[in-house]
Design brief:
Elements: H1 3-14, H2 24-42, E1 47-50, E2 65-72, E3 75-79, E4 95-99, E5 108-115, E6 120-123, E7 134-139, E8 143-145, E9 150-158, E10 161-162, E11 164-166, H3 168-176, E12 180-181, E13 184-187, E14 190-193, E15 199-200, E16 218-220, E17 228-232, E18 255-261, H4 280-291, H5 301-322
Parallel strand pairs: 11-16
Antiparallel strand pairs: 1-18, 2-3, 2-7, 3-6, 4-5, 4-7, 5-6, 8-17, 9-10, 9-18, 12-15, 13-14, 16-17
Helix pairs in contact: 1-2, 1-4, 2-4, 2-5, 4-5
């Protein structure tokens, strides 16, 4: 059904086809509100898009720049960008991938600690003399923005692989789990920490997960509706970054995001809801729920609650049915294989 057909169903149920109590504009808004809520609850339908990095690119990295490397102790500084001291556009906590430096230990991904207008500073674990200070670099995120069409992230994939989803609290807990511990002491009161056997590490061996490098295996964000996420760990090798690391024209990989769409409603009477017609009845129920709550002489809370129950029944059913898996199919190859034979 299109918007006009849904509205006519609602008006018929309200016995108000002449718009004596509810205008077409009001009912259109009720239908839009029901559609938005249905999509949010059922998490259906789903859309896909490509995430963008801090520079606005949909690729895993940005175009490279040149710079001059200098090292003071274990603090590395990049300056003289593109040979003219140009503004680099990087920010604190961005990740840059450096190449071309000698010794080679200065090459790789690094988190920016401080960025001025024309210089970048980051930490290194060594302080060897630099013999080749001319380097190339590009920004690698690590924070990416989800597609503008996605309201809630369901999955993220890279190079055809679905990435794990972590929260910052999970990684912080895992990273700090070795910081210290008590041994347990058994007594008549049960088990409790032994005050004489506390083990505490005086050396910080807690890994800084934001600095970890390796093949990209996960994304990190704290809320389903988060606008951004972080890749983890930072890519270690060129094959983790480029589609074909041996090509003469290197192309960065893209990060694909699948999720619940940002639903804004129907724009015209001929517009059809994004949800399948199988669920259009739910939009009728949702609009009726809202119509009977209108603050007027015809307000009927009892009828509104009845249609609310019908709407929720449809939305929850869609949530269960539309999240398809092979185990949910009961015919053909996916038919259950458990069988009992009884002999008499």
């Amino acid at each position: 059904m299109n918007r006009k057909q849904i509205r006519e169903r609602v008006e018929t149920a309200l016995q108000d086809v002449e718009n004596r109590h509810w205008s077409d504009r009001e009912i259109n808004q009720f239908i839009d509100d029901a559609l938005v809520e249905f999509t949010r609850i059922a998490r259906y339908p789903q859309v896909e898009g490509i995430a963008t990095n801090a520079g606005g690119s949909t690729s895993l990295g940005e175009a490279s720049k040149t710079a001059t490397l200098s090292v003071d102790g274990k603090t590395a500084t990049l300056s003289n960008f593109d040979g003219s001291g140009a503004v680099h556009g990087y920010s604190d906590d961005d990740v840059i991938v450096v190449s071309g430096a000698t010794p080679s230990e200065y090459n790789g991904p690094f988190n920016i600690l401080a960025a001025s207008t024309t210089t970048v500073t980051y930490q290194v674990d060594f302080g060897n003399a630099v013999t080749d200070a001319s380097v190339s670099l590009f920004r690698l995120g690590p924070v990416y923005t989800k597609p503008s069409t996605v309201a809630e992230i369901i999955s993220v994939s890279l190079d055809g692989r679905e990435l794990a989803v972590y929260t910052e609290s999970e990684l912080n807990a895992a990273a700090s789990s070795r910081g210290g511990r008590h041994f347990l002491l058994e007594s008549t009161m049960g088990f409790h920490p032994n005050p004489f056997s506390f083990v505490s590490s005086t050396v910080s061996n807690v890994p800084k997960w934001r600095d970890q490098i390796g093949p990209i295996e996960a994304v990190v964000f704290n809320n389903r509706t988060s606008d951004t996420f972080r890749i983890y760990p930072l890519p270690k090798e060129t094959r983790d970054i480029y589609i074909d690391k041996d090509a003469s024209n290197l192309v960065f990989k893209s990060i694909k995001v699948r999720g619940v769409p940002i639903e804004t409603g129907l724009s015209t009477d001929t517009s059809t809801p994004v949800v399948n017609s199988y669920w259009h009845e739910a939009l009728v129920f949702g609009a009726l729920e809202r119509a009977w709550l209108k603050d007027s002489k015809v307000q009927n809370v009892e009828k509104s609650q009845m249609y609310r129950a019908k709407f929720m029944e449809q939305a929850v059913q869609a949530q269960r049915m539309e999240g398809l898996s092979s185990s949910g199919i009961s015919e053909g190859r996916n038919q259950g294989g458990f069988r009992i034979n009884r002999s008499l």
